[in-house]
Structure prediction request, 232 residues.
Amino acid sequence: MINGKKVLALIPARGGSKGLPRKNILPLAGRPLLAWTVQAGLASAYVDRIIVSSEDREIIQTAEAWGAEAPFVRPQELAKDETTGMEVFLHALKEAGDGFDYLVLLQPTSPLRTGRDIDACLEKCEELNVPSCVSVCEARKSPFWMYKIDPRERLQPLINNVEFIPRRQDMPLIYSLNGAVYAARTGWLKKSGNYLAPETVGYVMPAERSVDIDSVLDLKLCEFILARESGK
Prediction:
């Protein structure tokens, strides 16, 4: 609870993953991938309840074993490739019951975010009086150096009408969504249908906590970061 407002944390974790099969429960430094996100939610000072939305029995059992709740089984029609995130969020809110002022989305593919990162997003919502805050990190590659290739194989700048910037140090800071934390007031989220809107503010996280696991290489990178932090 933050300033008298109740907080629900939702971990969406379906069983299907084409790029990295069974991704959400693959082992990472001695724990299932999903467990890292559950533990971050439990470490939050403000989260009142952590629930997992999944259609997969093994994922549900893993989530419960590590301290999350799984009060429902996600319907198969909400576990398809084309299912939108908002459909999953609204279903979870309905199943969890009324009374939550904030919904915090925690994707299991961001295992290095901490409870403090979750809390910082909620604090920004309260301190700045905004309905939504999402986590970002500095972009590794600037879009000012990105191009499209036209039918004649000529390079066309992705950002038009901007003079070429030859030095990286002279470029404006650019941030990208890192997928770690999405926090929003539930009433506003139901109306807007998206965590991202003109009112949304960003919470900047460092690159070493912003790894989003989508491949074996990402998993190995996380293992390296965790081993380095533990001194092994």
Observations:
- The chain is about 30% helix and 20% strand.
- The chain has a mean pLDDT of 89.
